[in-house]
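Re: Re: ligand-bound prediction request (bumping)

Still looking for help on this. To restate: I need the protein modeled with 5-O-phosphono-beta-D-ribofuranosylamine bound, output as structure tokens. Inputs repeated here so nobody has to scroll up.
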Amino acid sequence: MKNIVVLVSGGGTNLQALIDAEKSGLINNGKITCVVSSNPEAYALKRASDNGISTDIIRRKDFKTFEEYDEKLTALLISKNADLIVLAGFMTILGKKVISAFKNRIINIHPALIPSFCGEGFYGLKVHEKALEKGVKLTGATAHFVNEICDGGPIIIQKAVEIKNGDTPEVLQKRVMEEAEWKILPKAVSLFCEDKIKIIGNKTEILE
Ligand code: GRF
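Reply:
Sorry for the wait, this slipped through. Here it is.
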């Protein structure tokens, strides 16, 4: 059984999708044991406590330097015995220390088809604004491992979502979440927990 720690900052709908997947048996070789938030007000914390999951808060602004923050977050995650860390709408960039301590054991969900609309500055509604601005007809979501390059780690699963006439960034964000993020993130976590993701260089192969 893999020990899953989920990092959040906001509403936590992706966390909810993971909790639901665990309950329904879609994730059956892993257990969410802790939710760590960068924001004490995050609604995601309520979702965790409603489901009997322990919580912790770690804020970048409580540390003088980024290095101290990186060190503290790494120590916290090690103390939780995390086998897998899931970034489910976590809005703080991870440091070198935590990324190397959990190499190929951190999964992120990005609301676009990488390598489109990703990298620094592409977060939240911005991603969808840029997709609409460009006029692409398809966007989607990507579940990927985290490495030192922002949104650059091995891709695990992608799912396309159609863009419709009259879409606003908000409408598109909701469709991408419903049709893609809430499906592929639990699936990627389940594959990881079943040891079905083989990493070859910067690519993955799914063993099914
Ligand atoms: C999602 O769009 C996710 O892709 C992005 O942040 C949002 C998080 O939403 N990185 P929630 O907190 O899971 O509801």
